């Protein structure tokens, strides 16, 4: 079979395996069954008449023909995606994952809408950056926001990324908790206390990993992964969140823009001030007036709100410090 007749889906699956060098991880990245992925790779090898991978029970490696194909297949798929992006109707709605209500991302979206009044910008609420990136990889959303350094799924290749905000974090406590008497809560006051770092959403590893690193670094105890009620807290009404706090006695790590919940208060954390890094990401090939509006909104919001002006001595996770060159 001529190379021009190869199904682009097979090439896309080959590239995923070649980049991961692991069929299980590649299958998870593509949202397909591992057996189906293996069949697709075998079909491509039959169609091309060459072996693309050497496989053992412990490792997967590219053969010389596989290495050559990876270069060309990547180029071909990039060109294919760029062609489709240019041909797509840019009057369609732009799908933007804003994570949750009252988020930094939703503020950006709301600021962008007046800048493109003839364009429809639709919000999506996956509740976490990891889930949003999965949606981006599957073409279910166009733009995502959040802590990209902490996602477990491999982001699609060819992304435009922009740092949006370094948001200070706080602690949600019951209004009769001794910590509520403080205007701000020094990190030293968390020593020995159990802190709920899931925010009710254990499926957001970029958030839970940040919380665990922060709490453990400052002497606190991370709440168990699957304590009673955790999975339901994110979607629960406010009174259930209050009940959850009162039942467990665990303050909840949260962003400072969290919605007010009766019976609780949110106090900023200080000494040091922990930060959550917000990024905006979309495919390099995406051409849509809504994307331009988002970037123009950020051009206004970032300097006006001081979103990239962290306080002195602020704290960031190690992965983010390395990426942003921000001193602890």
TrEMBL record:
PANTHER family: HCA OPERON TRANSCRIPTIONAL ACTIVATOR HCAR, TRANSCRIPTIONAL DUAL REGULATOR HCAR-RELATED. GO terms for molecular function: DNA binding; DNA-binding transcription factor activity. InterPro entries: LysR_HTH_N, WH-like_DNA-bd_sf, WH_DNA-bd_sf. It comes from the Bacteria. Keywords: DNA-binding, Transcription, Transcription regulation. Belongs to the LysR transcriptional regulatory family. Pfam families: HTH_1. One of its GO terms (cellular component) is protein-DNA complex. Residues 6-63 form the HTH lysR-type domain. It comes from Jiangella anatolica. This is LysR family transcriptional regulator.
């Amino acid at each position: 079979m001529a190379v021009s007749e190869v199904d682009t889906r097979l090439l896309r699956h080959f590239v995923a395996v070649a980049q991961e060098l692991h069929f299980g991880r590649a299958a998870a990245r593509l949202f397909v069954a591992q057996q189906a992925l293996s069949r697709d790779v075998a079909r491509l090898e039959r169609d091309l008449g060459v072996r693309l991978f050497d496989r053992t029970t412990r490792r997967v490696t590219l053969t010389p023909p596989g290495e050559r194909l990876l270069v060309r297949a990547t180029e071909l798929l990039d060109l294919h995606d760029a062609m489709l992006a240019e041909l797509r109707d840019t009057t369609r709605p732009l799908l933007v994952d804003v994570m949750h209500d009252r988020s930094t991302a939703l503020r950006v979206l709301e600021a962008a809408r007046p800048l493109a009044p003839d364009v429809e910008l639709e919000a999506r609420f996956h509740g976490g950056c990891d889930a949003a990136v999965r949606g981006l990889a599957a073409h279910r959303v166009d733009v995502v926001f959040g802590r990209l350094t902490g996602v477990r799924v491999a982001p699609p290749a060819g992304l435009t990324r922009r740092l949006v905000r370094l948001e200070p974090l706080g602690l949600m406590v019951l209004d009769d908790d001794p910590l509520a008497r403080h205007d701000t809560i020094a990190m030293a006051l968390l020593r020995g206390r159990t802190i709920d770092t899931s925010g009710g959403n254990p499926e957001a590893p970029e958030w839970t990993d940040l919380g665990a690193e922060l709490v453990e670094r400052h002497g606190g105890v991370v709440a168990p992964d699957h304590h009673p009620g955790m999975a339901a807290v994110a979607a629960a009404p406010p009174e259930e969140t209050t009940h959850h706090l009162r039942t467990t006695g665990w303050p909840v790590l949260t962003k400072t823009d969290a919605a007010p919940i009766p019976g609780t208060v949110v106090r900023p954390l200080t000494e040091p001030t922990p930060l959550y890094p917000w990024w905006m990401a979309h495919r390099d090939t995406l051409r849509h007036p809504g994307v331009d509006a988002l970037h123009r909104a950020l051009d206004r919001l970032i300097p006006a709100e001081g979103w990239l002006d962290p306080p002195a001595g602020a704290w960031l996770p190690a992965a983010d410090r390395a990426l942003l060159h921000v001193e602890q």
